[in-house]
Amino acid sequence: MKKSVIYLSQGNVVAGGVCAVLLAACGGEGGAPTPAPPARLAAEASYNGLLAGAELYVSPAGSDSNAGTQAAPFLTIARAAQAATAGATIHLAPGRYAGGFRTAASGTATARIRYVSDTRWGAKIVPPASSTNDVAWDNRGSYVDIDGVEVDGSAVQAGTRWSTGIYTAGAFGTVRNSHVHHIGQGGCVSGGGIGSDSYYGGAGNDVLANVVHDIGAAGCKSMYGVYINTADSEVKNNLVYGVSNAAVNLWHDATRVAVSNNTIFAAYVGVVVGSGDYYHATAAGDYDRVSNNIVYDTTYGVMELGTIGTHNTYANNLMYLQTSYAYLLSRSFAVATIAAPPQFVNYVRSGGGDYHLAAASPAIDRALAADAPATDLDGKARPYGAASDVGAYEYVGGTPTPTPATANQLYVATTGSDGNPGTQAAPLRTIARAAALAGPDTTVHVAAGAYAGGFKTTASGTAGGRIYYLSDTRWGARIVPPASSSNDTAWDNRGSYVDIVGFEIDGSATQAGTPWTHGIYNGGSYDAIRGNHVHHIALGGCTSGGGSAIGIDAYYHGVMGDVVGNVVHDIGPAGCRWVQGIYLSTSGSVVNNVVYRVSEAAIHLWHDASHVVIANNTVSSSDTGIIVGGGDFYFTSGPDDYTHVVNNIVYDNRYGISEQGSTGTHNTYSNNLSFQNSSYNWSLLNGLSAAATVTADPQFVAYSRSGTPDFHLRSTSPAKGAGTTSYAPSVDIEGTPRSPVSIGAYQ
Predict the structure, then answer these.
(1) I want to staple 261 with a disulfide (CB 3.0 to 4.6 A). Which of 292, 602, 611, 684 is the partner?
(2) Which H or E element spans position 506?
(3) All domains of the chain, ordered by start, with CATH?
(4) Separation of alpha carbons 181 and 189, rounded Å
(5) How many CA atoms lie within 13 Å of 253's alpha carbon, on the beta-carbon side?
(6) Cα dihedral sign for 718, 649, 508, 448?
(7) pLDDT for 158-182, tens place per residue?
(8) The pLDDT value given to residue 549
(9) In sequence order, which residues have a C-beta less than 8 Å from that of residue 164 and are 6 or more positions away?
């Protein structure tokens, strides 16, 4: 490729008072009295079969007369609950399950019972043909987790309409990662999306990282997104919107409840903090904490109602666009409030928008550290930057490795001019001009927009003062073919001590002139290509001149190049053996990348490649997954030696992992998943063998050879936790901590 760790070289408002009810119907618009709480129902029938094992399986294709094994799954969740013992995991296969059932099995503090949708939101709880229950899933067990299900009440059929999605009345339970929507919309009833109730003695129940929306009929003041009647509970990292009354409502025995890092909009009230109509409590609710929440576009923001104590705290919330009051507090006051638009990526009040934070959001780095959970709604680690962010989503502006502050700043924008000085107020127009002005210890900020490719950058930083080319919005700065191309490379970098971070290189819209055969070509030393999206390169034809999406080359004496956290796909025409995904001909690392649909090798080492770490990549749908080799040497006599290939998923290629050409005896291969590669999974030289290989379907969330596959791992994936810590990066491609280490780009 002539031109061709160290990780990185460097309660409710009703006219006249309060109506706070759970499962007991509110008096409604006419002010009728509140009925008494429901009578306790009879205990569930005991399971009359054999003692259940630790793993049980449920599938729409199963039968309740089956054994509940993976080969012979149950049909219903209720049947699996009857069979479950402490410590059991109940796997729910994707598909539709009739709701209106109850689960009563309990785990213990050290052996919880887990109901897990093996594909997030793949197990869908839907109304039965004729409903006899007003709750989709009524859980009475303690020490129970409900994880990753969807409860969809939109397709109402005959019988009783659902007023509550997931109701949990046991103790120390968790509802997490679930999607609950379109509940209680046919008329004004009492209930909500997810409820934790103390009527049956429940306490310590948590509602974490769920999406809850379209709850309650318009104007109904007795429906809530999340309601908490229990002590010592947490409501964190949820996205809640489209709720007829409060998005989060504390009442009855609620006390010592933490409501933090939720994103709430389009509700009548954001958060109600109150207590009253006690089931078991004898004192006012107190010591509740409401912090780090975004409450936007509501009538009321946060209010206190009923009987409450004086130790409730309200801190670091973003409150904006309340038509009445941001805070309506009777016995407390709020501190560190952010009164500014949250600046979502794409706000749509009715849903369907993108409620992640844009780069300029005032919620970034503003959370109270003590109250912020360790991860966000997407599972990304907090904090990403200097501090955790307010709301359910942590802003990740490019890659899992943040770009450090530099002494010098230059700015580039599509509205700029290369006659400008390159300040934020007067930006440059091209990246090439910024490179001409850049010296060591400089960040070149590139605003979102389309920039004509086919340029070269030659500026170098130093070991103590790198140059960073940074797309300020991840994949927002797009490098695209110019009207008439005179270069076969989108971005040709020859500088050393350089990072290229967060760009999209899109070669799909080829215009006139020379077609691109290379996306990012790097000829410098100690450089890093991080967090970019490179696609549709070298599709026009196949020649021995070759090509690649990302190339790290030794031809200009470059050494130590890192390729970290990139997404690369659709590279080269079908059947072409000359075009690679990520191509390395020197020392360095290839870590945490996703590479698919490449005409030859997804990852290819050649020429002077040696001392390379290839770790935690996911590669698929290519001719070859990974080639380790040397030959056609520039400056060395080879071989490719001391290369370490660990924790990679190599799936559904023609060839798997292959050594070719000149290779040494010190290369190592450990904890890789190589499976369904049609010709072979492994071909190693010099008598080498691979250790701790996983030979099984990786169980991606949604895999296909066409379209946009989802390479995240299902909860049952054999890649989860099966990696080695040797050479593994500390976080995955999304910034999620690796503990224990999973195989592939996604933890």
Answers:
(1) 292
(2) strand 504-506
(3) 13-34+87-371 (2.160.20), 410-643+656-665 (2.160.20.10)
(4) 15
(5) 20
(6) positive
(7) 999 999 999 999 999 999 999 999 9
(8) 96
(9) 23, 134, 135, 136, 138, 183, 184, 191, 192, 193, 195
Residue 402 has a pLDDT of 65
- The answer to whether 621 and 589 are in contact (CB under 8 A) is no
Question: In this structure, what are the phi and psi dihedrals at residue 553, rounded to the nearest 5 degrees?
Answer: -120, 145
What pLDDT score was predicted for residue 17? 29
Task: Give the per-residue pLDDT at 397.
Answer: 53
Q: What is the dihedral of CA 525, 531, 533, 539, to 10 degrees?
A: 30
The neighbouring-strand residues paired with 115 are 90, 146
Residue 156 phi, psi (nearest 5): -65, 135
Residue 379: strand, helix, or coil: coil
| Type of residue numbered 19 | C
- Residue 345: the pLDDT is 81
Q: Which two tokens stand for residue 118?
A: 């093996």
Amino acid at 472: D
Low-confidence ranges of the chain (pLDDT < 50): 2-53, 398-400
> Does residue 432 sit in helix, strand or coil?
helix
Radius of gyration (Cα) for the chain, nearest Å? Answer: 28
- Return the pLDDT at 653: 97
CB-based contact 658:627 (threshold 8 Å): yes
Residue 371 backbone zone (phi > 0: left; psi -120 to 50: alpha; other: beta): alpha
Question: 485: how many CB neighbours lie within 10 A of its CB?
Answer: 20
The secondary structure of residue 43, as a DSSP letter, is P
What are the CA-CA distances from residue 689 to residues 421, 667, 668 (Å)? 57, 10, 8
* pTM above threshold 0.70: no
Cα–Cα distances in Å, from 94 out to 60, 61, 116, 124, 147? 8, 10, 11, 7, 13
> How is residue 96 written in tokens?
């539709």
Scan for tokens 């003590």, then name that residue: 370
CB 530 within 8 A of CB 592: no
Question: Which tokens in the block code for residue 473?
Answer: 């919005």
CB of 138 closer than 8 Å to CB of 102: yes
Q: What is residue 427's three-state secondary structure?
A: coil
Token pair recorded at residue 688: 């080498």
User: For 182-218, how does the pLDDT look when each residue is reduced to its tens digit (9 = 90+)?
Assistant: 999 888 999 999 999 999 999 999 999 999 999 999 9
With a CB cutoff of 8 Å and minimum separation 6, the contacts of 137 are 77, 99, 101, 103, 125, 146, 149, 151, 165, 166, 167
pLDDT tens for 719-736 read 999 999 999 998 899 888
Instruction: Take residue 490 and report the two structure tokens written for it.
Output: 């989108």
Q: Would you list the DSSP string of 225-287?
A: EEEE-SBS-EEES-EEEEEEEEEEEE-TT-BS-EEES-EEEEEEEEEEEEE-S-SS--S-B--
CB-count burial class (<10 Å; 0-12, 13-18, 19+) for 337: middle
Cα separation of 19 and 31, whole Å?
9
Closest listed residue to residue 218, CA positions, set 29, 355, 32, 20 = 29
CB 372 within 8 A of CB 383: yes
Helix residue ranges, H only, 276-350? none
Q: Is 248 exposed, middle or buried (0-12, 13-18, 19+ CB in 10 A)?
A: buried
Q: Are 648 and 743 in contact (CB under 8 A)?
A: yes
Sheet holding 649-651, edge to edge: 449-452, 477-480, 504-506, 533-537, 567-571, 594-598, 618-620, 649-651, 673-675
Could you give the dihedral angle defined by the CA atoms of residues 283, 285, 286 and 289, in that order, rounded to the nearest 10 degrees?
Answer: 170
Q: What is the pLDDT of residue 12?
A: 31
Task: Report the greatest alpha carbon distance in the chain.
Answer: 90
